[in-house]
Records
---
Amino acid sequence: MTAKPLDDLLNWRYATKKMDPSKAVPQEKVDAIIDAIRMAPTSSGTQPFELIVVTNPDIRSKIAEAAGGQAQITDGSHVLVFAAWDNYTTERIDEVVDLNVEARGDLPMLHAYYDNLKSNYLPRDAETNYAHAARQAYIALGIALVAAAEQEVDSTPMEGFDPNTVDTILGLKKRGLRSVVLMPLGYRDPTADWLLPMDKVRKSRDTIVTEVN
Ligand SMILES: Cc1cc2nc3c(=O)[nH]c(=O)nc-3n(C[C@H](O)[C@H](O)[C@H](O)COP(=O)(O)O)c2cc1C
């Protein structure tokens, strides 16, 4: 596959509404998308989320029910569930420090940096910390959407679901995780997706950009 310009990928992808249930995304393409998620930048490199990759049809049916019956969840072959840490903890941050030591050695500034981060994050309430972690998951979602397009895989970013129900279905609470956003993967059904022929709706550059020179 030759590399496509980013602009083409962004125009090719769309929030797919109808996927073809007869087509499954090959594992190597799923792996490429997962790797892009793993490589996403996060604040202070904490990567404060996990990814649950659901193929099980029964579980996907339950998730679809918690998402107002959105059929992409069951018509696609995979659902990526971005699940953020429910809070920052000493243990979680220490694991990040260990990972840094492993990769780069025990640099003197490392401990001071993460000690400072702990003194900022740990006194905050869990909801504030969860919201911060969830924002990091959204960065990975954005990269995943582009990575899927690069793999010529269709996807739908999804916030339209009940997170508490999905947390229960996947047993996330006991793992200290909360579902943030879903991303079904599959292949568009070109004959049945009403959104496919429609033009993209985007604000003009002037509307969203203020240049301060
Ligand atoms: C965070 C987020 C949540 C979304 N939730 C849903 C959803 O639950 N169901 C859905 O069909 N589309 C959902 N969308 C798709 C948006 O409506 C869509 O991305 C937007 O209208 C732009 O269209 P495009 O992605 O087709 O270019 C969501 C998009 C984002 C980024």
---
Amino acid sequence: MSFRLTLRPVALALSLGLAGLAPSAHALNIVLRDISSTPMTAEQLGAFQQAANYWSSKLTDNVTVYIDVGFNSLGANILGQASSSASSVSYSTLRSALVNDAKSATDATAVSHLQTGSSLSFYATQGDLSTRLDNDNTANNRFLSVNTANLKALGLTTNTTANNPDATIIFATGFASSFAYSRVNGQVPANKTDFITVAEHEIGHALGFVSGVDSIDECLAANNSCKNSFETQAWYSPLDLFRYSAAGKLDVTVGGTRYFSIDGGATAIESFSTGAYNGNGWQASHFGTSVITLMRPFVGDGQSYDATTSDLLAFDAIGWDVAAAVPEPASYALLLGGLAALGLKRRRQAA
Ligand SMILES: [Ca+2]
Ligand SMILES: [Ca+2]
Ligand SMILES: [Ca+2]
């Protein structure tokens, strides 16, 4: 059995402004609040905290993200629910924030391939499920839906607080016994789902690993009046700025073959899932299914893992500051070799 990792985004209107001060070098602080009807056990809360601590060890943005967590009774067969607050932001504002926040080589590549101007051009699914190149400068081209935690990573302010959190992650009490809440030598029993992996995944959604393609797909599946607002509001996310189907082809259509790319589609880093209803059967707010990544749409029993390089590249590109990786031994050798050569050159110059 595998644990299906789902996401239910909720958009909230929030005020938005530019933060005044440059962040200093610290770490992401995640504040968890237990909103279970019966308080979580110390073991359960500890596992949630371990997942939060994991992200704090990887992301160095000096911001605080508030997440309500817990176990409650949910509807039949619902394992868990995660939702994030989000705000509509103009593409111009978002692009400026991405440029100003760029620190890594990944960021430099990513921002240099962003479309210029104030209106995006992309391939999009229409209300009748057809596809067209949407470059008509309507609201869906000019505004994006950005998770409040992602806004914080970009130095943009929100009005979230401990009582008005950035996200809510709730699991079903009925499935509580199917989880293992601690890892032993990095592993969990073969018949248990690793709660820490699941919690890290859900926090990843809260931090901005989401796609507006799911909102379109779910609207089409429900066949309701939201189809009439595809052009008139923000639907797509910062992560959708890196969703391609070919070189130069930004593509937020439901279904097909889509991949994560930071160089305008020239290089595919990882495949994306493409929709629970009209796509590959999995929510588009995930990487694909064939490679183990933290943000793939499911975790199998007995499996334990954290973010991969692909996962971290995505968080880096959408505005997070990723802690520098510890160089591998071969890189150390290269670095030391480089320093030795530099020292030699200086001595020669001094001689
Ligand atoms: Ca449009
Ligand atoms: Ca970054
Ligand atoms: Ca940042």
---
Amino acid sequence: MKVKCVICDQIESIPDDSPEAKKLRNRPIHTYMCNSCNQRIEQRTNERIATGNFRLYRTIKTEDEW
Ligand SMILES: [Zn+2]
């Protein structure tokens, strides 16, 4: 099946019987992320954890409250 990355809008094709495809079919809202975006986010998350500054969700919430 064809999937679109929510971050960079890249269209990718994944095997119909892959766990990813099954997950996406079960949910109407597509939250697919391509490999490069996945890795980028993972890397960023790891960097934050490494610096002891892991406040991703709190930071977003704070900005919304402004
Ligand atoms: Zn992407």
